[in-house]
Amino acid sequence: MGRELPSGITNWLEDSPLCSRFSHAQIDTSGIPLNARLIGYMSAHTWNFPSNIISLLPSLQHIPLAGSGIDSFTWRPSSTGKYSLKHTIEALALPAPPAPWYQLVWNSLSIPRHRVILWLAVLNKLPTLDSQSMAYKHILNHCTLCLFSGESLNHIFFSCSFTAPIWSHLQNTCGFYTRSQWNDFIFWASHHWSSKSIANAINKLALSASLYHIWVERNSRIFQDISSNQNTVLLKITNSIRERLLPLSLKDGVAARRARQAWDLPSSFIRPPPRPPDEPPLQP
Questions:
Q1: 201 CB contacts (<8 Å, ≥6 apart)?
Q2: Quick one: which of 20, 34, 179, 254 is 20 to 30 A from 208 by CA?
Q3: Does residue 253 carry a pLDDT above 60?
Q4: d(CA 260, CA 254)
Q5: What are the Cα distances from residue 42, in Å, to 47, 65, 283?
């Protein structure tokens, strides 16, 4: 019941405070201070509000009194009554369908820190030098990877001479091809990789891992003056993909076999077929 709550200013009365039901003059003549605690108006199992307040709002007398337990807080956005950041955000956010690229970014196989970079890229929020140079005139828009052109998402993906061999290798390994514009590619991938096949899951994993390690290499050159060659960056990408796939054990099939061969995975990546119940176990 909230026995210790201020009766006049907290939302205990049908989700509203007592002061919202009466004028200031009525509250003044009732003798109830706004900060008076509810317990002061409880008598045994009945309410003990002033008669003039009861006459104005008879429903007060019909509000059930809870037991004499200790006050506790209930977080209404959460179904359990306990604080939950997820339920709080859902309560504050406007209802809207998921973005078409939701599964492309927020899928269970991609590495969490890789998802964040891909998410920013999908929203065109990565601080590439083309946008930075427009906001700050002293910043020169110069790609630190190839040193030949201005930096943008389209350049990094489709025209940078440093990243071109990396993308080409991954596209050949995964069996997909990029488009000529970043936004067009995201639109295409969001629709063509929507099913929950292992091939699509690996494509999403490869996309986020590639973008992440290329972005790390870009930042390393700008902020630390440390650079790696294309083969080193590609090795980091393939290792992160392979390490993510190693714990998996998939049902035998064409896609699973292709993935095992493409990423040099052990035989444990593919589960053996179940043994028929009447077949005796293999002898060592």
A1: 107, 109
A2: 254
A3: yes
A4: 10
A5: 5, 8, 79
Cβ 50 vs Cβ 40: under 8 Å: no
Determine the Cα–Cα distance for residues 170 and 247; give it in Å rounded to an integer: 21
d(CA 260, CA 269): 7
Q: Spell out the domain ranges in the chain.
A: 1-96, 102-266
Query: 70 or 2, which is more confident?
Result: 70
Residue 62 falls in which region: left (phi positive, over 0), alpha (psi -120 to 50) or beta: alpha
Helix (H, G, I), strand (E, B) or coil at 210: helix
What is the C-alpha separation between 266 and 195, in angstroms, rounded? 25
CA distances 132 to 43, 125, 135, 142, Å, are 67, 11, 5, 11
Closest alpha carbon to 118 in 179, 68, 185: 185
Question: Using CB atoms within 10 A of its CB, is residue 191 exposed (0-12), middle (13-18) or buried (19+)?
Answer: exposed
> DSSP letters along 166-206, please?
HHHHHHHHHT----SSHHHHHHHHHHHT-S--HHHHHHHHH
Place of tokens 């090795």: 235
- What tens digit of pLDDT does each residue of 211-220 get? 999 999 999 9
Q: What is 100-126 written as a DSSP string?
A: TTHHHHS-SSS-HHHHHHHHHHHTT-S
CA atoms within 13 A on the CB side of 12: 24
Spell 11-49 as b/e; 16+ CB within 10 A means b: ebbeeebbbebbeeeebeebebeeeeebeebbeeeeeeb
Question: pLDDT digit string (tens) for 170-185?
Answer: 999 998 777 778 999 9
